[in-house]
Amino acid sequence: xxxTLPAAAAVTTAPHPRLSLNQATIKYADLATALRxxxxxxxxxxxxxxxPVAEVGLETAxxxxxxxxxxxxxxxxxxFITVPEGPARRAAIDDNRRxxxxxxxxGAPTLVLVAGGLPAxxxxxxxxxxxxxxxxxxxxxEARAAGVTLAIEPxxxxxxxxxxxxxxxxxxxxxxxxxxxxxxxxxxxxFHVWWDPALAAQVARAGxxxxxxxxxxCDWATPLPTDVLLARxxxxxxxxxxxxxxxxxxxxxxTGDVEVEIFNQAIWDTPAADVVARTVxxxxxxxxxxx
Amino acid sequence: xxxTLPAAAAVTTAPHPRLSLNQATIKYADLATALRxxxxxxxxxxxxxxxPVAEVGLETAxxxxxxxxxxxxxxxxxxFITVPEGPARRAAIDDNRRxxxxxxxxGAPTLVLVAGGLPAxxxxxxxxxxxxxxxxxxxxxEARAAGVTLAIEPxxxxxxxxxxxxxxxxxxxxxxxxxxxxxxxxxxxxFHVWWDPALAAQVARAGxxxxxxxxxxCDWATPLPTDVLLARxxxxxxxxxxxxxxxxxxxxxxTGDVEVEIFNQAIWDTPAADVVARTVxxxxxxxxxxx
Lengths: 291, 291
Fold this sequence. Notes:
Chains A, B: Keywords: Carbohydrate metabolism, Isomerase. Chains A, B: Residues 36-272 form the Xylose isomerase-like TIM barrel domain. Chain A is an alpha/beta fold. In chain A, 41% of the residues lie in helices and 16% in strands. Chain A has an 8-stranded parallel beta barrel with strand order 1-2-3-4-5-6-7-10, surrounded by 7 helices. Chain A has a two-stranded antiparallel ribbon with strand order 8-9. The radius of gyration of chain A is 19 Å and the shape is globular. The A-B interface holds A 118, 122-126, 129, 156-158, 160-162, 167-168, 170-171, 174, 194-198, 220-224, 226-228, 238-241, 244 and B 118, 122-126, 129, 156-158, 160-162, 167-168, 170-171, 174, 194-198, 220-224, 226-228, 238-241, 244.
């Protein structure tokens, strides 16, 4: 035994060129800090969120991104389009229009859409799902004109009532295919889809049509925390087989950025630079070998 | 305003003849008490659990059931058959054999199977699912001989890692159809399947083949409790559209008992007679009109 590491252990591998840090993983960092930490870690891409962009204003955000030299893999997020016709629905559609413009301005190819849950007091799941499709129909023209892909993110079924009525990849594809892959795609997020018995078939279907707009990775572990929104973990810290899922996504022809997006209070409470380092390490060990 | 109710309000409707009280809803009642409370409420069927049966011994349980005049709609539960070959798997298979015998002795048509989660340390979800099918293959002969239907219960995907690797009705049917409806069926439990975009199609498929062995009802509401196992509510207290789901199950031709099965700490902490009354009332208001 020795208390000094051999020299080789100190050599750090550069992050995989397709790794993108989703900004939500370092939720409390402002935009400038998130860009700096990402670039400093040698990561070449970042997934942005609208709130920290809005904090500095879109023009400043565009300049900060340009100065950083980073790619923007996606903007999170639009959606929340399940309410019936009326002023609230019009406001939601308008907000998505602004999100499309922000996505284009930031040079991101993809706007991530989270459908939204059942409207308050409603039990009409099918109606809510139909309204998601209808809203995408309203937005598709503007997205196409802006060169932005609207990426429907199916969320885990435990969020079906209060957050996203789109629960499976197959269901997201049923909508996307009505519009075409040039304007509507899907997000494959391991946390949300790992359990799906139809996963292999639906990833293949998505890939064959060119519908995979984003691949996001984080891990699932139990017991779930009290707030199930914050149940995500670094790749490798849970039960998801990243080799198997990544092989499916690779075989489906997806060649874009792979975002690590983690909502986890303990991780948010850790210094952001440490989180970025840990993100790179977990991705290098768990996901990168399968890309 | 008056402080006396009109006479009509005091008239109570008899419980629907297809209502069955699943014993887990009054978890802390022993078998004799559960049978008595169920019969006293005018409910004609009960779903039993193995643990309270074992407490009094099978022979005594059989006599208590006969004396109660109640039907036994199902026995919960077998399953937990995801571990790889070895002594633990043999023990699990043997335990399921005992459960089949208990089901037959109690005169129940159906043994409910919960698949089990990923074995400790495993990420091989597909392998675990294959082992569920294989175990059912080992048990099918004895179930057929005993006149017991093995009813695979798909559990909500939030339990896929630690409790049940069978997550959708379609997946359960993929297994059941390998054996035939005379020996393997599926459980349609609203709490587990309400979110499924394929629900209508899969209930119809199950009904067409005669595979619906049990219909269980309880409601989904958020936020989820810290222990997500205990997230179930009385029908009507959440977001599930019991009219729509019950109509699907009716249209699929299911004519058997309908169990109310609720895991909820606050309900368990309520006097059992009150829980039975509330179960009858919620079923009468929410489910019975659609049967």
